[in-house]
Specification:
PpiC domain-containing protein; 2 domains; mainly alpha; signal; disordered N terminus
Amino acid sequence: MNVFRMSIASLLLLASIGSTAAQNFMIEMEQFDQWIFGSSGDEKQTRAMIDARAELEIIRVEQSTPLRESQKEKVMLASRGDVHRFFIKVNRVRAAFRDLQADLNQNNINEAYQLAMPLQQEINKGIFGEKSLTAKTINAILDASQRTELEEGRSRLAKRERLGLAKAWVATLGRSIPMTSEQRTQLLDVVVANVGTSRVEGQYVQYLIGYRLSQVPEDEIEPIFDETQWRLIKKSLQQAKAYKGMLEQQGVLNDE
């Protein structure tokens, strides 16, 4: 819930600023960086997190097909290129923010916030997506046999990940709404069928699952539970609908 509270806090900051008189005020670069890096921390912490994700890309591939050392080196070189390109964009928006900083007021504060949002969305989605140098390099360096193994392995991994995320969501819900083993299994089937295939970094996954399930027709979920349980679950799903704005803002709800 910390991520949701942080997103709301940023919006409340903008709202409170917008409610003041039309006068200049200061937002320090540290605050602007928080808009960019979000829950990842500061620039140093974000770099460390992204470097760890780059190593994870190689691990993900090798879960399906072994890579030669020369192939690993090319992937790591490409990942460094993606990191370099990302922080070039960070420095560009910082420069644009500095141009606004001295004259910030209630009329252009949202312009400053919108400078940061695309970068925070990129962090949340992961900078090594299918359009990245890393992904393109992986596709280029594999031979036909490796590529087949990778595609099959990715399919298996995606299924395991969806199941794991769905189990975690059901377990979390089960701590506040007791269920029988059979009910958990039936709900798990519904969640797995609707969790989607988007690769989203961890801190938003549970919100995304809750929102997706809130879009499922009630007649697919209600028969699983008794009247008391359903009343509580329905309330929880209604609350999850409110995540839509936050998920869209963070760039993790782009396939609706």
